[in-house]
Amino acid sequence: MARTPAPGTRERILTTASRLFYAHGVRAIGMNRIIAEAGTGKNLLYQHFTTKDDLVADYLTRVRERRSDAIRRALDAAGDDPRARLVALVAEIGDLVTRTGSRGCTFRNYLVEFPDDGTAGDAPAAVARGHLADVRAVVERLVGELGADDPDRLTGELCLITDGLFMQAAHRDAADVRRGADAAVALTRRLVGA
Staple 181 to which of 27, 79, 94, 168, CB 3.0 to 4.6 Å? Predict the structure, then answer.
């Protein structure tokens, strides 16, 4: 007879998997390690997550919700001026990548690990690409509100800044990342005329 999951089992599994996936990469972490570290049985894990892809999609969805909330809070705190909102977006990402243990962007990391994903039904890649598209849409909208002479170019430049912030977090030391984050905010201010 199957065990009834204890309350909080699904959350414990997802929290454990999230920590491991971010720290080591999705490909490097097997279900047995998640089972061992979450302190759950194999059957319980598979009651909640039928496949590893299901678990990964839920992990990415959780991060997407948290990132969307953080971005929304940063934009709201910046007020209505699109210049200030763009600077706030870059500053929020700068703060994120300077946190201890940052390995860069969860979504970009996933897509680098699984570059061929994107086939129909690939839920993890769809979540990752969806978040990145959402952030780009925010940048495009705010750049549109600026009335920039070349909005496509400015959007591209700002996206390169955010990409760079995430990339350096994956391989540079903390002091370099902090300097890079400060430089990214200063560059954004110059680009948008803030």
Answer: 94
